[in-house]
Amino acid sequence: MSCLYTFPAEATVNLSVAPGFTLEGSDDAVLEWLQDWCDEHNILQTLRIAATDMLVFGGAFIEICHEKGQDPDEWWLKPLDPVNERVRRDAYGQVFGYVQLLTMPPVMFTAQEVVHVRWGAKSWWYEYSYGTSLLRPLLKIEALINQLENDLATLTHVYVKPMIWVQAGRPDAPFSDQQLSQLMQAFSQRDVATDVFTRGDVNVKPLTSLTRDIKVDYWLNYLYKQREAVLGVPKIFLGESSGTNRATADIVMQEYCVRLRMIQNLLSEMIETDLFAQLVAAKFGEGVEVPHIAWKPVWEPTLDLKAKYIGELVQLGIILPSEARPQLGYQEQPSEEAIQAAKLLPPPRPTGRQPDATQELSNAEEQQQSAENFP
Description:
Layout: H1 3-17, E1 21-24, H2 28-40, H3 43-57, E2 59-65, E3 76-80, E4 85-89, E5 95-100, E6 107-110, E7 114-118, H4 125-130, H5 135-160, E8 164-168, H6 177-188, E9 202-206, H7 216-231, H8 246-284, E10 292-295, H9 303-315, H10 321-327, H11 336-343, H12 357-373
Antiparallel strand pairs: 1-10, 2-3, 2-7, 4-5, 5-6, 8-9
């Protein structure tokens, strides 16, 4: 697949999944076990594959692999190829399973065995079942761009080797068929910067191309803008910083962050409902609260900008210094009561073993005896 499609999708996926997440809610034992399970099974890599499939193909399918009665610690995840997946729905639109057409006979999955994430789902049949692909509208735009590039190459070759009109002979002395054939062969074999010699009764006139008035820049820029609108990636991430200022960049970045958060919400919603619920029920039993995914910030300002902003909040009395310190990466400042309580504690005992008085006296007697024996 062309990097035109994959790079913008990968940039969006990396920015949305790379920050990672933490788990909130439920009991501490459930949180600790589920967090360890996610780390051991490298769930961020699985989510990265799912997010890429979701943007490119419209939907992502993840199989929850386990044997009947198997310990949830041994469950694992396997992304499925969305090209070969089909959704099984009843007459009321309820999903009751999936079919994998990669092999024959096809492989059947129940609805509980697959985590299905959709991008841009609509109310009509196809997009409701399979989501909306970013690749589909790009196909027509990219086809038009490729066609224009081929046409421009042809037009450039025409201007380098222009078309001509050759009139051979005179009305009273026309060329014979053999002479006309030789003349046609001579002109057809001409190349760029090639001289052709003819008799005086041969008239050669260049033909003016009708493509000189085509607005190529307007048409090409229009296609590029359409492609950028479909991809949805700011130009700054594609290495094009011209034509942007700080105000425009802030607005574009805010809109892009909203799109990234939407990807995170879609992933976390399906993971919590379809995966975490089964894991917690199998490990701790029914009725236990399922933890929720809390994504880390997609984008944070630099430390100097953050310190300036938080410092103004402290000066205005909106937040306390103790609240500002953790936001800047410092430890929370202890309260005055904690400081006074620490002063009342006894001094810490030394870690090394100190010699007692009996040992010191014994050492002194040995030194005195040694001095008497060797004056």
